[in-house]
Amino acid sequence: MGVTPRNDPEQDAAVAPPRSARLAHEQSRAQAVACPAVIVVGGAILGVVGLLVALGVAGSATALRIVGGAVALAVILLGPGVVALQPNEARVLILFGRYVGTLAESGLWWVNPFTVLWRIRVSLRVRNFQSDRVKVNDASGNPIDIAAVVVWRVIDTAKAVFDVEDFEAFVIVQSETALRHLANTYPYDDYAPGALSLRGTTDEVRDSLHSELQSRLRTAGIEVLETRLTHLAYAAEIAEVMLRRQQAEAILAARKTMVAGAVGLVQMALAQLAHSDLVELDTERKATMVANLMVVLSGDHSPTPVINTGSLYT
User: Fold this and answer.
1) Cα torsion at 16, 17, 20, 26 (round to 10°)?
2) How far apart are CA 31 and CA 274, in angstroms?
């Protein structure tokens, strides 16, 4: 009586590769032979001559016709193996449903002729994708219009062909998704010191978009070369209101800077007067001097001087 072995889930999990590893593909070099153009032309001519001899042109003998037919048949079977590649172009070779490698070097090559029906051309050139303007809420909940350009290229043809359905559509969808997530992460504008915003810290925002997009497109064997925002504005329905708010925040930030500078100047003036013994001021006169200096230094317009012809206390 046989004993059925009990399956150990932990052992099975350790032996079986993870699902992501089974689905991922890695580009490999296809087995190919460099094929000079002279051989290709000579083979074509030889095939035509063999075909003519096999058809009995010029009353060829039976044995010669057999040889000509064999030569023509060999050329017909081997000819589809010739592949011409341009620079920055690749061919993904599939043989009866199995990936057998990628041919990525430019030139004239001969590969397995039975892959002729399943060769997939993939361009390795640099490409641009200009996203449409999308409306999304920023981190503060304000609706904004945002768009970006993505510069990318394929670096792993096996992943681009086998791991995603359509790598070009994959780039479009993932770019728009990353752009929406970026807009939700940062506010449109923020005047706080050191705060990150879409409009104020363009370098950090660009690096964040590039990093997220590269992690998303790595599955498809795509390298992101550059990302950049091409449009950034408040949505039309709140543009006027947010413009006034933006102006008010800018004025407030400028006022804070002016007041901080004015206080420093007043402190420096009082310290220099006290150190030089040029004039002695009591507390009341110091307060008056501070008030006058703050008005002069923090005002919007140039002050109008008033000359006091009396004494200091009149």
Assistant:
1) -140
2) 90
Spatial distance between the Cα atoms of 304 and 314, rounded to a whole number of angstroms = 19
- Give a yes or no: residue 185 inside a domain: yes
How far apart CA 13 and CA 6 sit, in angstroms, is 14
More confident residue, 204 or 71: 204
DSSP string, 174-204: HHHHHHHHHHHHS-S---STT---TTT-HHH
The pLDDT of residue 14 is 41
Query: Bridge-partner residues for 82, per DSSP?
Result: 110
- CA distances, 196 to each of 138, 203, 204, 269, 294 (Å): 12, 10, 8, 37, 32
Q: What is the domain extent for residue 289?
A: 239-298
186, 209, 234: which is the final residue of a domain?
A: 234
| Nearest alpha-carbon partner for 76 in 54, 61, 106 | 54
111 and 184 share one domain:
no
Confidence bin at 124 (pLDDT 50/70/90): very high
Q: Does residue 309 belong to any structural domain of this protein?
A: no
Rounded to two decimals, the pTM is 0.67
Is 286 part of a structural domain of the chain?
A: yes
Is 304 a domain residue? no
Assign 232 to helix, strand or coil.
strand
Q: CB–CB of 173/134 below 8 Å?
A: no
What's the CATH code of the domain at 220? 3.30.479.30
The pLDDT of residue 12 is above 60:
no
Q: Which of 43, 206, 215, 36 is nearest to 109 (CA)?
A: 36
Task: Please name the residue ranges forming H helices in the chain.
Answer: 9-15, 19-23, 37-54, 62-78, 157-162, 167-185, 202-217, 239-276, 283-298
- Are 249 and 270 part of one and the same domain? yes
3-state secondary structure of 97: coil
Q: What is the pLDDT of residues 158-215, one digit of tens each?
A: 999 999 999 999 999 999 999 999 999 999 887 677 788 888 888 999 999 999 999 9
